[in-house]
Each structure stands twice: as structure tokens, then as C-alpha cells.
Design goal:
mainly beta, OB fold (Dihydrolipoamide Acetyltransferase, E2P), elongated, Biotin_Carboxyl_Carrier/Decarb, Single_hybrid_motif, Biotin/lipoyl-binding protein, Biotin_lipoyl
Length: about 140
């Protein structure tokens, strides 16, 4: 399978055709001239198995005293991911912009900040829990 590209570098035009890679060698044709190119091997990536931390099932996530969190005041997940850290507890006072939890999505840690000032009345998730976009995370009233 040959891949063909056209490049302009410093005003010079190059037509480049790249042939199949066999082991670590590839044939590259630049403006009609053929080159054998030896590619460096890709670095070995150490595979790390990460197991999510699962809280002991001693209690469900904290909810409002009525048993149902008021989802109208809930801070919701902006994207799907896994909760890696919760930095608040029920009863904590937070200011708009305070980081309340960390959501890992697409191999990136995302600080989830309070959208308004108030009191945490419910924590709807726990570390290691997977959430979908728009799932309630914490309730701030």
C-alpha cells in the first residue's frame, strides 16, 4: 500500500510516496528518487493495569435528609468518566470555582468546580464510580 503526499517546504515542492513498512525498513520515493529508510523502533510502553478504587459498600453516597437529592441544584458531569477523587463532604461550604471533585475522562484528570457558592447537601457519587454526561455529582444549595 503506497501513500502519496505533496509538500512545499521553503518554496520547494516535494512529491513523496511511502511504501509498505517491512520490519523497520520502508521505501520512500521523493521527487522520483528512491530511498531506503530505516525507522527507529517505537519505544516499549510499559503497560500498567489500574484497578478502580471501590468504596466498601457500608453506605450509599450521602444524600439529602429526605432520602432524595434535589437534582435541580446538582452539579452535573460535563462528560462521561470515572470519579477519582471527591474533595467535599455533606455540610461543607463551597465558593463558586472551588474544586469539588476530580473526574478522569479520556486519560485526563478534570477538576470539577462548584458553579455557585453554597452548602453541599448531597454527594451523589463515590471514588471509582463511572458516570455519564449529565449525571448528578454533588448538590449545592
Amino acid at each position: 500500500m503506497k501513500k502519496e503526499y505533496k509538500y512545499t517546504i521553503n518554496g520547494n515542492k516535494y512529491e513523496v510516496a511511502i511504501g509498505d513498512v517491512v520490519e523497520n525498513m520502508v521505501t520512500v520515493n521523493v521527487n522520483g528518487e528512491e530511498y531506503k529508510v530505516e525507522m527507529e523502533p517505537e519505544p516499549e510502553v510499559e503497560k500498567v493495569v489500574v484497578k478502580p478504587v471501590v468504596a466498601k459498600p457500608t453506605a450509599a453516597p450521602s444524600e439529602a435528609p429526605s432520602g432524595r437529592a434535589n437534582s435541580n441544584n446538582a452539579l452535573k458531569a460535563p462528560l462521561p468518566g470515572v470519579i477519582t477523587e471527591i474533595r467535599v463532604n455533606v455540610g461543607d461550604e463551597v465558593q463558586a470555582g472551588d474544586v469539588v471533585l476530580v473526574l478522569e475522562a479520556m486519560k485526563m484528570a478534570n477538576n470539577i468546580e462548584a458553579e455557585k457558592s453554597g452548602k453541599i447537601t448531597a454527594v451523589c457519587v463515590q471514588p471509582g464510580q463511572s458516570v455519564m454526561e449529565d449525571d448528578a455529582l454533588v448538590v449545592i444549595e
